[in-house]
Specification:
heterotetramer, A: alpha/beta, Rossmann fold, disordered N terminus, B: alpha/beta, Pyruvate-ferredoxin Oxidoreductase, domain 3, 3 domains, eight-stranded mixed beta sheet, seven-stranded mixed beta sheet, 21 strands, binds thiamine diphosphate, binds magnesium ion
Chain lengths: 292, 591, 292, 591
């Protein structure tokens, strides 16, 4: 009854050969077997490797939750912060050192319950970081309570009769906050997920990737692989990702979640804006930071 | 001749009361005097309440404002009347001789001047109108009048007026004219009181700063890289000043969405090796409690300036108080040791600010610097060191060859501080976390590890009690055995020193110990001081006696408390009454 | 130089005769003369009076800010809470006592900086209260710093060179949160403002009224009466307030802010939902609360 | 014959270890024994770590688990081996006789049993398979075996299995079968050890509750109207239980978006006169700090349950600790006095929960009830009072005729509590605020008002120290002068009482004082107790000695500390060593 090995020998070999092993930590994920999060921890190394970002130059920042254990399972710099605080900590890191690739990760509760106040500001400031939101519609780590994205009627220990609250729609919200890259992926489609992580990191500015991911332990009825697999669809081929209105429209459909890049645009990042102030003040921009 | 003169200017905000005080203190500092100055503002948004600008001008070092003023200027009868009483015998009361409105019996300042005081009626309004065509420059008229009456050189005033109104066109010109008009009148007035300015002595090469400005300067001189903050009285002006200065130096400042974000970004930046800070007041510190705990657990440097105001809750935002000591020291869950410094004067603000960055980096932990409104807003002449007395980098580097597989971010070391690899350094990859962890930073909940890491987090701070080039505590006054010893902290120390001088005059053996480092606490030194005292008095601007409580907790010995929550600085006379009372008991015991 | 009397004799008489005086507190507003907030404190009594809500049955809840001094200037029950906490406190009040009319008021900083995490949840739960947001694009009480709705380029003491951050769009955001009544008014049009306050209160569910209001003391250049007066416009006559898409579209235009009801719909309130749980649990709904 | 038997069941979560312990303790409680029980869980999300279910079964009152177990059941060799040592001489070790996998030398429990222990090899897997066709019911086999071996009545077990698996069809049936198979084997086994269950005595009419369930029951019995909360270990189960029970009573519970919202909604509801509460752990309490201050300033009742876990920061969420005392008492800015209660056992959780509502309402203030993981999750048999011992309404009503223009929400009164008008009451309209205010609730920043209101907020709590029908503190053990006095709080009190009994056996004069009301602090009573003690020992599950610190702060007298942060309850033997050490010094002094 010891933990089941998550990584098959073959898998390990494949990873090793692809050069991605450098990005994997020696600690094996402590997630439940079958948890959707495994796809994400598999996808990030690929994305970083393909983009040529060395482990030493990446910082993975997280909040608290099953999802937020993520930094322990990759071999980069990592900051496992507090419940809900992933974005401001990540903003501080990026503001202090432009040279780092900052990836923020966390759960639906972390991001849209306790951390919900920070998302608008990271987005509107266009902080140049990537936010991977693991949405399982549940509080996994605390053993399965209702989350702000839980479906109405879903039963959990804190809503034993049913969840009475209409869920939030993070994708739609983030679009209105001014995020400059917004996409959705599904843990059940790891290939596409990896590609989208790569695109999100490559984007200059605040990129938000919403990842639908089943919690196999505490949700046996609602967002299972089987049900989600049936619901998700690809973005309409003619979707114009430069059109915010169209993106909003797409995001309003939560019944059949679309996978792909909803929206993408370019505007100055927070660092650009702050450098602008330095110029206005007559200071010299881009001075070498104290840090490596 | 020693100079020791206190001037109060009283009026409403609309009358330029605070501006007049500002010019006066800067001019006198420019002339080479020492100045200490604190203004009282109205609390309301719209600025029509009473303002009082007060400054004490000396040639010797002074530590607080005096109980009695030597000169009072009333720009407005209504606001002036309650303050006539604060003028000492043979002091001067300057007031509007020709009020615009017809004032009822008793509503005129003149009716409230005691026989022993010297009245100087002045046609303030008229002089302003005659000089500039408007009544707006009345504050300049009285400034000129003071300068003329007391035979002060014009030049420092003119210089300050020039700087202050540079580029403001006619305003500058009008102000000069009004000043001149007042000056002439003053110079021509026969001075009856015994208020006399002596020469400033050898003259000080000093700058005039308030506590918040000194903090900002300390940050800049210590090489602050990033500042993140959210506005809150009385801390806001720290951020406002840095917002002007940091971009000039290529540094980044960001106004965050709230205080939780402010401390989170500060710690994020600190994690990368940047010197970063935030500033707030009690309510903001309460919100930061959880994140500060992460800073302690993850051993990330950060600096938090906290300027206290009246509490609890929103309290009295525009009045001073020292009631955030408890939260600063104990305001986190778990065993969460932190460094807490409380400067006692404006120069101390500068030093503590810079040293806070050193300590945060050296001991890898958050450092809280506790000010209060009285200190944040009080102006003092400060002689700046030739070179900033701060180390530019106190980080403990990873020994060569250690980076790589074996690198232990939280390794146990002799001084309990572990070498820190910063993001971007090859081979130093690790995860910091708020969970208990082992030397590598991996989650570990074993009893032995938790005990060992708890010890590490506490013991590493012991060295802070010996941090170089820093005054952790200091004893003043009589050596050896004393009747009464005063233990003081923060902005109240000045008043305690003035009390000590008074006590000496009255033949009471008295000493003061100020404690600047409140956590970790210099228990031994404080206990040794207490050994010397027949009675120990702890005066504080809070209701509960938070410092007294801390002393008892740390030493296990009782003290006498004296607490006020008036929103205003301690009155020297009030503390003195306690000293007399205790001295009597002490003598009785000795007898 | 004593404060100027804000209320002219005639005005006072008019108010007295309308029966609205009962709703005005004896404390005169401490706002700067000319502040837009006076229109709001004039409008609320009218709205309450017209709706027949007695002063004893209304609770005005606020955060901290110039705007949040509001409860002191009306004669109802009032709770002047903490910066950013107006909505959760109001939610607690309404949840504990259905019989009260709960009106939440606060500034742009209060609501969308420090309090930004609470708005989505009050909206999605459809708490039956009215949220009046006083948007002056500035932090008034703390003497004029940048707020999350300040324009780019605006200079304040905390952005002395210029505000570098793109402002948030609260109207747009609140629409995506699930608010069931969303409107915009302007302090410079007090009649319309009063009508809209009345409509907002009359709505069953979470109603959000965004009120553009100049800060005459700290903003002399950007959102002045003169400039705002030129920009605001009425809602297009053909606007369908049942159409969320149309509302989003309208809200995206911040250059010429439209005044009127953007969106209105009906769904169960939080109280309805909680009563539903009681029914499911076999408890008896609607039991008399302990309170009056 | 007195019964005092401790049983430990050791295995992984997947093996039904905790479930077996749960059935066992409930069955034994059902049989009329007293039980105290505490399980240790794995920290990881996925449930394969080690679990230990431990229960002590007695006829007399017991206060904690024992150092040594009488019976150990190993469901799994790997997890069982480290626990063989905890079995006393002549105690029983029950283990799998026929392991599925081939175990290496030394990996089998049998190899670790000391000669003095009595081995009971049992074909657990085989019995389960034979009875049910699957190995899943191994936990039931051992339960049955224990019952059979020790001649316990079958019926209480059957009853519990029935309730626990009601509606689960075949699972229920299988469990019964497996139990029977185990029972038969046990009954047929020759018992060699000296573990003997006597009759339960007259039998207790008790219920089996853990601390969190007792809190929930206390809330319900006190008539809680509203609960608002955010999940966090180890407090979550309070909300989970109330989520089931409150709707049945027509009451409303809401899971909020975070802890700041949880306390804000709680205070909002409290403002309307509703009895409302929230529950959290240290990190959540840190976030609540600011809003709690508003509750204090605005004088609004609210109840906050805080179950402590390992800290600081995220710390060790699944381990116990007593390190949130500081933040509970001092964790707010300004002079923010509050009521803090810390129950010491499960029954106390029930009482404190209900009384907290009374006090919050009576003194118009937030009340914090401090538990910890050990108390939250520890099961005890509790004899419930026939009628809930809680007042349904402690609000101070507005005297007839006072409502209207003259009503003063914050009027000064003899007991410093002001009559409270609730929203909806005609003529009672007022505004509550976090700003300092006058009797009417209008903003007022005058020095005299701030001093008077500060005094009111502090002095009104003094009456809480006399709150009726409540044990604020209690002395146990020897009267008069003692060698060693133990001052204890919270979940640790049980261990201290056991220590006291041991000390008496060793001829050491020893007394224990438990303090339940930690703020306001019963200074006089504690000082009087200290007067009686040659040495005072303060054992706590934190690193800093937070309670010791509090005692020194309040009394100005020194104590001896004993601190552990192992994440596990105190070991009686460890405290006893300290008592012996101090007793020796005390005697030496006396000699
Ligand atoms: C301040 C605070 N409140 C509550 C918690 C307890 N907590 C830990 S994780 C979590 C929610 C996890 O849900 P989510 O963010 O969706 O992540 P998941 O586990 O589902 O990946 C909660 C409530 C905490 N650690 N800190
Ligand atoms: C926790 C906390 N942080 C900061 C403050 C200081 N503060 C008071 S009001 C305010 C902002 C006011 O702006 P807004 O909400 O837009 O209201 P306005 O004054 O413009 O009406 C701030 C930052 C505070 N009172 N509490
Ligand atoms: S509890 Fe759910 S979210 Fe957490 S690791 Fe297990 S499956 Fe994944
Ligand atoms: S500062 Fe601005 S918002 Fe505040 S009262 Fe004055 S005008 Fe109104
Ligand atoms: Mg989740
Ligand atoms: Mg504003």
């Amino acid at each position: 009854m010891t933990p089941q090995p998550i990584y098959l020998e073959e898998k390990l070999k494949e990873v090793q050969e692809s050069g991605r092993l450098a990005y994997r930590s020696k600690s094996m994920p402590t997630w439940c077997p079958g948890c959707g999060y495994f796809s994400i921890v598999d996808g990030l190394p690929g994305a970083l490797n393909d983009l040529g970002i060395a482990p030493k130059d990446a910082v993975v920042v997280s909040g608290i939750g099953c999802s937020s254990r993520f930094p322990f399972f990759v071999n980069t710099y990592g900051f496992h912060t507090l419940h809900g605080r992933v974005l401001p900590v990540a903003t501080g890191i990026k503001t202090a050192n432009d040279a780092l690739t900052v990836i923020a990760v966390g759960g639906d509760g972390d991001g849209f319950a306790i951390g919900g106040g920070h998302v608008p500001h990271a987005a509107r400031r266009n902080v140049d970081l990537t936010y991977l939101l693991f949405d399982n519609g549940i509080y996994g780590l605390t053993k399965g309570q209702t989350s702000p994205t839980s479906s109405v009627g879903f039963k959990t220990p804190t809503s034993p009769y049913e969840n009475p609250d209409q869920p939030l729609n993070p994708l739609l919200m983030v679009l209105t906050y001014g995020a400059t890259w917004v996409g959705q992926a599904y843990a059940g489609r790891p290939q596409q997920l990896e590609t989208m992580i790569k695109q999100a990191i490559a984007h200059r500015g605040f990129s938000y990737l919403h990842i639908l991911s089943p919690c196999v332990t505490f949700d046996k009825t609602d967002r299972t692989y089987v049900r989600l697999g049936d619901l998700v669809r690809d973005l309409p081929a003619n979707h114009d990702k430069g059109d915010l209105g169209a993106a909003l429209h797409l995001a309003m459909d939560t019944a059949t979640p679309a996978l792909g890049v909803f929206y993408e645009t370019q505007r100055p990042t927070l660092a650009d804006a702050l450098d602008g102030l330095v110029e206005k003040a007559g200071g010299s921009v881009g001075q070498k930071r104290r840090t490596a | 001749m020693k100079t020791d003169i206190q001037i109060a200017i009283c009026g409403s905000a609309g009358e330029g009361t605070i501006a007049a005080g500002d010019i006066l203190r800067n001019a006198l500092a420019g002339a080479g005097y020492r100045v200490i100055s604190f203004d009282a503002y109205p609390a309301e948004i719209r600025g029509f309440g009473k303002c009082v600008a007060r400054l004490r001008v000396t040639t010797e070092q002074a530590y607080s404002l005096k109980e009695k003023s030597d000169v009072l200027v009333c720009l407005n009868d209504e606001h002036g009347i309650p303050h006539v009483g604060e003028v000492r015998d043979f002091g001067a009361v300057i007031y509007e001789a020709k009020s615009i409105v017809h004032l009822a019996e008793g509503s005129h300042v003149s009716g409230h001047i005691r026989p022993a005081q010297v009245p100087y009626p002045l046609a303030i309004r008229e002089l302003s109108e005659r000089a500039t065509g408007a009544i707006r420059s009345r504050n300049m008229v009285v400034l000129g009048y003071i300068a003329g009456l007391f035979h002060l050189a014009k030049e420092p005033f003119e210089k300050i007026i020039n700087t202050k109104f540079k580029g403001k066109g006619k305003a500058a010109e009008d102000n000069h004219k009004a000043f001149d008009a007042g000056y002439e009148t003053g110079a021509a007035t026969f001075k009856l009181d015994d208020v006399n300015f002596g020469p400033p002595g050898k003259g000080l090469q000093a700058v005039m700063l308030n506590g918040n400005a000194a903090v900002a300067k300390g940050c800049l001189d210590a090489g602050i890289d990033n500042f993140f903050g959210y506005p809150i009285t009385p801390a806001t002006t720290i951020m406002e000043r840095l917002a002007v200065e940091m971009p000039k130096r290529g540094k980044r400042l960001l106004q965050t969405e709230d205080e939780i974000a402010a401390i989170s970004t500060t710690i994020g930046a600190g994690y990368t090796g940047a010197r970063s800070a935030t500033a707030t007041s009690g309510p903001g510190l309460a919100l930061m409690s959880e994140m500060l705990g992460l800073g302690i657990m993850a051993e990330v440097p950060s600096v938090v300036f906290v300027s206290q105001r009246g509490g609890p809750s929103t309290g009295i935002p525009t009045k001073t108080e020292q009631s955030d000591l408890n939260i600063a020291i104990y305001g986190g869950h778990g065993d969460a040791p932190r460094i807490v410094l409380a400067p006692t004067n404006v120069e101390g603000c500068y030093r503590c600010a810079g040293k806070a960055f050193e300590m945060a980096e050296r001991y890898q932990t958050p450092v809280i610097v506790l000010l209060d409104l009285y200190l944040s807003n009080r102006y003092e002449t400060v002689v700046m060191p030739a070179k900033p007395p701060f180390e530019p980098n106190c980080d403990k580097p990873v020994p060569k060859g250690d980076l790589g597989a074996g690198y232990k971010r939280f390794g146990f070391t002799e001084d309990d501080v572990s070498p820190r690899a910063l993001p971007g350094m090859a081979g130093g990859m690790h995860v910091v976390t708020g969970l208990e962890h082992n030397e590598l930073g991996r989650v570990n909940e074993q009893p032995e590890m938790h005990e060992a890491m708890s010890r590490k987090r506490h013991d590493k701070l012991k060295a802070a009690l010996q941090h170089p080039d820093f005054t952790h505590y200091k004893r003043f006054g009589d050596e050896g055995r004393v009747d009464v010893g005063i233990l003081a902290w923060g902005s109240t120390v000045g008043e305690c020193l003035e009390v000590m001088f008074l006590a000496h005059l009255e033949g009471i053996a008295c000493a003061v110990m100020k404690v600047v480092m409140l956590s970790p606490f210099p228990t031994e030194a404080v206990a040794a001081f207490m050994d010397d005292c027949d009675a120990v008095l702890v005066p504080e601007l809070n209701y509960q006696g938070q410092f007294a409580h801390l002393i008892q907790a740390e030493t296990g010995r009782p003290v006498h408390r004296y607490n006020r929550v008036t929103g205003t600085p301690m009155r020297v006379e009030d503390i003195m009454a306690q000293v007399r009372r205790l001295a009597k008991t002490a003598t009785r015991k000795a007898a």
